[in-house]
Every structure is written in structure tokens, then in C-alpha cells.
Design brief:
The chain has helices at about 1-30, 140-145, 180-185; strands spanning about 130, 150-160, 165-170, 190, 195, 200, 205-210. The chain is of the alpha+beta class. The longest helix is centred in the N-terminal third of the chain and has 30 residues, at about 1-30.
């Protein structure tokens, strides 16, 4: 029984020493822990932002406002291409222009003026289509002859009330300069103008020019 009491006293002593050692180690390591450094900046005489300041995101870009500059063109006295006209006898004759808000003049519209080209009539209104009255000789370019290249140009042609070609657009692709050659040929063509009943009108038509191996 005495030996048991002595063993218990020994266990208590060992436990007490271990507890004291643990407490000493805890406070020793906590005391020698490295100090944490905090980086901060001292701002002297700070500027206070106004109360009505509106903050925007950093990446936001303000839209740039640009003013449109109106295109300038010469003012030519006369009726524009959208005016209602007639070819009946006794009607007043007024030349083509783009304004009647000025005195009569001898100026003519330039080919680049917006009102210089006639407005084609709608196809369903045309009672008689434009008819070709000139001869078409489609000679190939020297480059096309050397390459043995042939083809057909598909064109959209604007014909005015006098039967003259006013605008040509190439609708397909041709090589060796045949596309440019077709436009050049088309601009020299002459037509009997299209008509709505007995009145000549401007019209747009599709026209083909064939470049054959014989030319």
C-alpha cells in the first residue's frame, strides 16, 4: 500500500514538472516572437475633395462628342431630280438644279453633285423598256489576248430620259482589265429611253458585254 502511495506521489511530481516546463516554454517563445511590421504612408497637408465630386471607374472612357460638318455643294437654280415634271406642250421649261430659292443662273450641276443623277422609274411602271441603238464592239485587252482569257461582264446601267448612260456598275469580277474595259464601253452606249406610256423616263437595266476569243 505504501509503494502505491509513493508511485502516485511520483506521478504527480512528474506531471507538475512537465506542466511548469510547458508554461516556461510558452512564455519564452511568445516573448521572443519577431515583431510584425506595418507599412504606412504619412500624408502631410492632405487636399480635401469637394463634396460634389463624382467618382468614375478607372477604366471608364468618356465618350468623345464630335460635331458633324455638313457637306457643302454649289447651289444651282433649277428643279431637282425628285421634282414632278412633264413633257406636255405648253409646260414651262426649267433646267435641272438643286434649288429654286435663288435667282436664275447659268450654272450646271457637276457629275459629283447629289442631284446630278436621275432617279430611275420603278420597273412595274415602265411600259416600254430602253432599247440599244449603238453598236457594241467588245475588244479584249492585250493582257487578256495573251492569256487567252475570255468572259462576260454583267453591268447595271442607269439610262436617263435622253437615252444616255449616266452610271455603270460592274456586278461580277473579270481579270486582265476586262471589267474596266466593259465599263468604258458601256459609258459610250446610246439607247432609246424607256417610257411610261408616251413619256420618256430614266431607268436601270442589266446589260451584258461578251468578250470573245475573236476580238
Amino acid at each position: 500500500m505504501n509503494s502505491l502511495n509513493r508511485w502516485s506521489a511520483f506521478q504527480i511530481s512528474i506531471f507538475g514538472h512537465l506542466l511548469m516546463a510547458a508554461i516556461i516554454l510558452f512564455f519564452t517563445f511568445d516573448f521572443f516572437k519577431p515583431e510584425k511590421k506595418i507599412n504606412f504612408t504619412v500624408i502631410e497637408n492632405p487636399v480635401v475633395a469637394p463634396s460634389n465630386l463624382i467618382l468614375q471607374p478607372k477604366n471608364e472612357i468618356k465618350p468623345t462628342v464630335t460635331k458633324e460638318i455638313p457637306e457643302t455643294s454649289q447651289k444651282v437654280f433649277g428643279l431637282n431630280r425628285k421634282a414632278i415634271t412633264t413633257s406636255k406642250a405648253g409646260a414651262a421649261s426649267v433646267k435641272q438644279g438643286n434649288t429654286i430659292a435663288k435667282e436664275n443662273d447659268d450654272l450646271k450641276l457637276k457629275p459629283t453633285d447629289a442631284d446630278s443623277l436621275p432617279i430611275p422609274a420603278d420597273d412595274y411602271l415602265v411600259t416600254s423598256g430602253a432599247k440599244l441603238i449603238s453598236t457594241v464592239i467588245a475588244n479584249r485587252t492585250d493582257e487578256a489576248r495573251k492569256a487567252g482569257y475570255v468572259g462576260s461582264a454583267v453591268l447595271l446601267i442607269l439610262i436617263d430620259r435622253e437615252g444616255l448612260v449616266r452610271e455603270v456598275k460592274l456586278l461580277n469580277v473579270l481579270e486582265f482589265g476586262l471589267g474596266e474595259k466593259a465599263i468604258e464601253i458601256a459609258k459610250q452606249l446610246k439607247f432609246i429611253p424607256a417610257k411610261i406610256k408616251d413619256d420618256p423616263v430614266a431607268t436601270k437595266i442589266r446589260f451584258s458585254i461578251n468578250f470573245k476569243s475573236s476580238n
